[in-house]
Specification:
- The longest helix has 27 residues, at 121-147.
- The chain starts with a helix and ends in a 12-residue tail after the last helix.
- The protein is mostly helical.
- Helix content is 75%, strand content 0%.
- The chain has six helices and no strands.
Length: 159
């Protein structure tokens, strides 16, 4: 693994993570009904930072391996769906609309985990916490959508 590859993957992760700053949770999210098991707010940046470092490590290791096309495709898919989910859930406040994106994210993280394990044990292990976390996030998204059935999405203003 080269440091340059790691930094390229980390830059992609930071781009995905930047959507959190672009679409902050704010008072709207605080007022939503949430399940009793929702993690405290401070957990989210800690977990996401750790996951982004781990999957950057995994991506850099797998990128150098032969026959890595499927693993790289899953890596690209998961970061794309990761980037897309926040603007839909927090930006547009589409609680139910974020669920199909979350499903695609979960499948792509599972695919990235499995294919990374097939290529490099350390890369597969690095993806495992992400699979656990995205499972929790999916359950949380579904729970919040169910607990707030009357929540109205934002309607983007016309140009």
């Amino acid at each position: 693994m080269t440091i340059w590859l790691f930094l390229i993957f980390l830059a992609a992760c930071l781009g995905a993570g930047a959507t959190g700053a672009m679409f902050p949770t704010g008072d709207w999210y605080k007022q939503l009904k949430k399940p009793d098991w929702v993690p405290p707010n401070w957990v989210f940046p800690v977990v996401w930072t750790s996951i982004y470092v781990l999957i950057s490590f995994a991506g850099a290791r797998v990128a150098q391996a032969p026959d890595n096309a499927l693993a790289m495709a899953f890596w690209a898919a998961q970061i794309a769906f990761n980037t897309l989910w926040t603007p839909i859930f927090f930006g547009l406040r589409r609680l139910k609309g974020a669920l199909p994106v979350m499903a695609c994210l979960w499948v792509s993280v599972l695919g990235a985990t499995v294919t990374s394990f097939q290529i490099d044990i350390w890369a597969g292990l690095a993806f495992t916490p992400y699979l656990v976390w995205v499972t929790i996030a999916a359950a949380l998204n579904l729970s919040v959508a169910r607990l707030n059935p009357d929540q109205k999405p934002l309607v983007p203003s016309s140009l």
